[in-house]
Amino acid sequence: MGLLSLGTPLPWEQAKELAHEVRQHGIEQFLHIWRNTKNRQKDRLLWGDEIEYMLISLDRKNRRARLSQRGHELLSTLQIEENEMLNKANQTGEKPDLEALWRPEFGRYMIEGTPGHPYNSSVFDLTTVEANMKRRREIVASLMQEDEMILSIGSYPQLGSGDFLEPPHKANGQFSRSLFLPDEVINPHPRFHTLAGNIRERRGSKVRINMPVFHDLNTPRPFIDPSIPYDRSLFPGDKEAKEGAALPDHIYMDAMGFGMGCCCLQITLQAPNVDLARRLYDQLATVGAVMMSLSASSPIFRGYLADVDCRWNVIAAAVDDRTAEERGERPLAKDRFAIPKSRYGTIDTFLGSDDGLFKPEYNDLKLVYDHEIYRHLVNNDIDELLAKHVAHLFIRDPLVIFEELLDQDDSVSADHFENIQSTNWQNVRFKPPPPNSPIGWRVEFRPLEVQLTEFENAAFSVFTVLLARALLAFPDINFYIPVTKMDINMQRAHNRDAVFNERFYFRRSSPADGEDTVAELTANEIINGSAEFIGLVPIVQMYLDSISVEENVRRQIERYILFVRGRANGSIMTAAAWIRIFVRNHPAYKFDSVVSSEINYDLAVALDDIANGRRPAPELLGAGNTV
Length: 627
Prior knowledge:
The chain has 627 residues and is of the alpha+beta class. 38% of the residues lie in helices and 12% in strands. It is built from 21 helices and 17 strands. The strands form five sheets. Strands 1, 2, 3, 4, 5, 6, 9, 14 and 15 form a nine-stranded mixed β-sheet that branches. β3 and β4 form a beta hairpin. α2 crosses α12, α8 (274-294) packs across α13 and α8 (274-294) packs parallel to α14 (483-494). The chain is globular, with a radius of gyration of 23 Å. The mean pLDDT is 96.
């Protein structure tokens, strides 16, 4: 969840007056980082993953599963040992031996776990990932009460629906002002409440999230959600739903928590130098949509089956702080730019690198960027592509400003830069080294949906890392397509059963004379190969064939590759498909799109049984793969 500073967060009326100052200092901080680290070379190919979990409380007697606010309590306990070991290491100079690191997320019921140390660059280390992920689950489970479970799922089916929270609270909070979510779902860290409130204040209204409902046999047409309290008048924004914010045939949500209360799997990769980080950023951005379709795990929102399988658009709408002018609904008068997209979305511009593969026509989106910042960067020896990238990020305002952190030494701090960088949530993120740190230039791969089991999460993580290493090992590999095609791909990947039903723009391997370099391919053709494209799996296997890999290591890695191959060719279903089938086969389901509390309880128990190996699920994991 980006920068987590402590201090006194300023309300929006004060923060907006300081936005220009924060942007100016953020740019100076970036320039200091650039001057100090642009010539770094030979950083190791370290990497790490982030998995987010939801803590759920079970009422077995009444067959209810609720999100537990004890997630924050568990997180505090988990961080005690971590902080003690880090403090000891600072005193002794010894490297702390941590199994995992634990971080807060937006939801009070959420916990983020990462490995205690980055994985190293050896192929053997890839075989330790699944065990590390399992150990993280075990550590959290050791602190749980008998009636609790943790799940790594994209979206909680009943978030914002009925009796979904333990202990219960009314939806009447000042920060979100949601019709459905109480502020008590928000992590008490001051950043998160302020984010929710400032997004709403800056936008001038509540966020508007509308996911198409899945029209089942008995779903009304048009579907008008009867659970929306249209006549509530607690806050001025309550009237928005009745005035058109809630669309017919859609599932309406109205707060940041619906998006940032979802869970994900993210992977951060360190590159040897800045140029290779730019190559990874560009090339991995193009595969994000198809990888998201393979990992789809979010088919239910606010108690209704949706006609989508992923959370991406929910989050994009949940953090859309653009004003009416910036959204193009009114002529520009007070604001600086008309901005086509939310600050959560696909990248808008490639960075290019020394591989010689980038062409200007790939950046075919009319980029909105701060021209003054761009000129300042170029005048300080930043190349045009990187200068436009940073100037584009900095069209946004900082959403949370801590009073105590306003005055900084720009030569040794990156807080103002990260304030804006970390709230541009794109499908890949280009991450400069922190000041005075051994950490190098990195790329964060962000589109993957979190999976139910450690086997699946390890498979997607290992596959992504191997693909990245193949991109570094084979500099002639070229996945460039126009940026606008990536936007289309991401929307298609969001759709129900996209892995089977959609085609994605992708670059042909060897187009014939006169053929376009870009074709519309299925997920199976992109992953496993076809006459149009060699395939991501063959590329990964070609990389493994080019290096020395012990037989037992290769055998374990092949399990992960076969799993990814199966997701793409349809022999292994996505979690979203599995969940949808479970709901539609439940005896209490009325084929009206409603996921009742009873169904939600049985689904939570079933998912927990799969995650802990009590319920075989070869249709989800692949034949022979167990938890």
